[in-house]
Amino acid sequence: GAVVSQHPSRVICKSGTSVKIECRSLDFQATTMFWYRQFPKQSLMLMATSNEGSKATYEQGVEKDKFLINHASLTLSTLTVTSAHPEDSSFYICSARGGLAGASYEQYFGPGTRLTVT
Amino acid sequence: GNSVTQMEGPVTLSEEAFLTINCTYTATGYPSLFWYVQYPGEGLQLLLKATKADDKGSNKGFEATYRKETTSFHLEKGSVQVSDSAVYFCALSGNNAGNMLTFGGGTRLMVKP
Asked: Do A49 and B108 touch (CB under 8 A)?
């Protein structure tokens, strides 16, 4: 149980275009989803936290107008990278957690999406 | 704020060697502690966890003990295999409203046959 999927696993896009990444919890309801960014050989950097039905909370330094997050249902969150540039190339990982905010429920991670902007 | 510090890699070992990856943390209150493993090109998988002082998490031959007195959660394995080659992340989850994870920088382990 507790499987999280991401789609696509890899995407190459041209500079200036937008890319949408999906994160789905397959066998549980995810009240909270997290989006991380990972640069090569580095740790995960939390970009934003989203709770179902409400606006995402972005970490300091993350542009909310560039990285649009939607968490419209309990099993799906999407990250849209708008007007992508080569510096947005990275590995994007989502995680999902069930239960109420503040509960000590475990986060389950997706397999990641590698974005390359040419 | 919360922070996690782990030893820098890469750590290179021969098969069947003993592994230790150090992890120390700074946090207020009583955090939960985790080790995650990331295989090449994949997302993170939870390896083990401990939720209170003196708890020992274990899985697949790996183990780590929550030491509050030294604020540490070192990862150990008695005999590593080539298949253990991966990046290992130590993390903590505080008692804040979001229970967000704070990750260490990751340690790459390379096991040679």
From this structure: no
